[in-house]
Amino acid sequence: MFIPIDRNIKLVNVPKQGNFPYCTCVLIDDQIRVLLDSSCGPDLAAKLRDQGVDILINTHFHLDHTLNTGDLGPVPIWCHGLDAPAIRSVDVYWQMYGFHLYDCEELGRLLVDAYHLEDRSVQRELKDEEILDFGQVKLRVIHTPGHTPGHCSFFEEEKEILFSADIELSAVGPWYAHHCSDVDDYLDSIQKCMDLRPRLVIGGHNGVVEGDLKVKFLACRDRILRKEEKILKSLKGPATLEHLALEHTFLFPKLDFAPDIISAYRSFFNKQGVYKHLQRLIRLGYVSQEGDYYFKL
Ligand SMILES: [Zn+2]
Questions:
Q1: How far is the CA of 288 from the centre of ligand 1 (A)?
Q2: Is the pTM of this model over 0.85?
């Protein structure tokens, strides 16, 4: 059930870690047994519960990182203070997606109901740069916002291992199509991870990443910048967000809903993703907005 990274760090062997709603989960098998993220499926979560988990750390609030928390039994949850409200309250959860801003409250509720999300208590709010000492393994909290405001990565300094969560070094990421996402923060967070010069990265959906990590971090950054260039280039005349969102799509998870609901979700996320870039382009002075229309300057 585990893929050992070393004596104290083990990947939970989640068969569908790359597919929604699963993720890469890591067990710190130390004096204190800690699980990083819980969306490993109910069966693996139940096995982990039987073996004993002392603390669950959620890298961020998304359901594909928190889904099987209930199957772990009563385990204290730690996460960053900026994502804690969305774990504590499902109402806050879908508001952080931004469903309420696009008249999509019903879509938000459907998502929450389909995955049986529940309010959970968070026992400890993590802060940037604090060291979490579990015995042999000591994790430094690296606050890496952008994907979500409280998204955290964790660095094992001595082993030079970075748990990067959804700063994904694969074609899956980066993803920032939520109301609570921020493209500038995401770019800064990629740089912050790169500056740590990890020997090995464990991503949130693709497990161990090795090789030239600097090149992979830069490729991650470039995927964001290329998207932005394409959006800017497509602004040949005045265009509305609705129009641009038809042209520029963002990666979308496989959800088990009827086709019309899927298409409503897809449209919602595309609008949010394009909107994030437009706001940045306005800040950078490349674009202006009048009413519902965006113009290239
Ligand atoms: Zn996520």
A1: 30
A2: yes
Both 55 and 76 in one domain: the answer is: yes
pLDDT tens string 153-175: 999 999 999 999 999 898 777 99
d(CA 153, CA 58): 10
Q: Report the distance separating Cα 134 and Cα 127, nearest Å.
A: 16
Ligand 1 centre distance from Cα of residue 38 (Å): 12
**Where among 205, 224, 243 does a domain terminate?**
224
Here the CATH number for the domain that contains residue 40 is 3.60.15.10
User: Are 88 and 148 members of one domain?
Assistant: yes
Residue 11 Cα to ligand 1 middle (Å):
18
* Peptide bond before residue 42 is cis, with ω within 30 degrees of 0: no
Distance 295 CA to ligand 1 centre (A): 31
Cα gap 297→110, rounded to integer Å: 40
Structural domain ending residue among the three candidates 224, 257, 273: 224
- State how far the alpha carbon of 78 is from the alpha carbons of 64, 122, 239, 266, 284, in Å: 16, 6, 43, 31, 36
Angstrom distances, CA of residue 259 to CA of 55, 255, 263: 39, 10, 6
On whether the CB atoms of residues 272 and 279 are closer than 8 A, the answer is no
| Containing structural domain, residue 62 | 2-224
CA 163–ligand 1 middle distance (angstroms): 14
- 243 alpha carbon – ligand 1 mean position (Å): 26
Cα 296 to ligand 1 centre (Å): 31
Residues 38-85 pLDDT 10s: 999 999 999 999 999 999 999 999 999 999 999 999 999 999 999 999
Q: What's the CA-to-centroid distance between 211 and ligand 1, angstroms? A: 24
For residue 86, give the nearest of 70, 65, 55 by alpha carbon.
65
Amino acid 3 reads: I
